[in-house]
Write a structure and sequence with these properties.
It is built from 6 helices and 9 strands.
Amino acid sequence: MWTWERVQTSIAPLSGRPEFQDGICLLKYRLGDDGTFVDELNDLAPVTDLRRVQYLYSILKYYSAAEPIQLSGKLIKFNQLDGGAAKAAFSDQLERQLKGLFDCDLALTSFLFTTIFGARQDRYGDQSFTLEILPNLPVTFVYHAPDEEFESECKLFFDSTANHFLPTEICDFLVDIFVSRLEAAFSKAS
């Protein structure tokens, strides 16, 4: 079980790194010195969902154990991560959820990516965004709008160095949390 008592000595030192000088924040969840999270998208409400807190702890614990390295710049699909082929169905579901948001309101989804989550617009597909979820841990989301021949699609890519920072299963958690955060922000804004 992921508890603050078990992960504190691993995660707390992140606050001493230059890239965390403004505090430890993950997808608009801010970690306090006491191990509690507040939700920056919800008026700093305490995060009480134990499962969500455990996922956040697991992401930060694995991330904190990795030494910083240079990004490769090579984008890979989820199924190309170590053992990712076995979990590709989960990635496909997340891509369908993202596609649904883009299809429903492209402008709003783009606004949420850039303004709320701080993603940068990229050069792939009809719309694409790269979100550095944690320092040196970017995820790129590529949307292709529908046309006369093909329906729309959304694909997500990791830098090929992603497994240096997180095991594949934890990459699942990371993107799953982002998609749920994006969906909540979308619902609130529409």
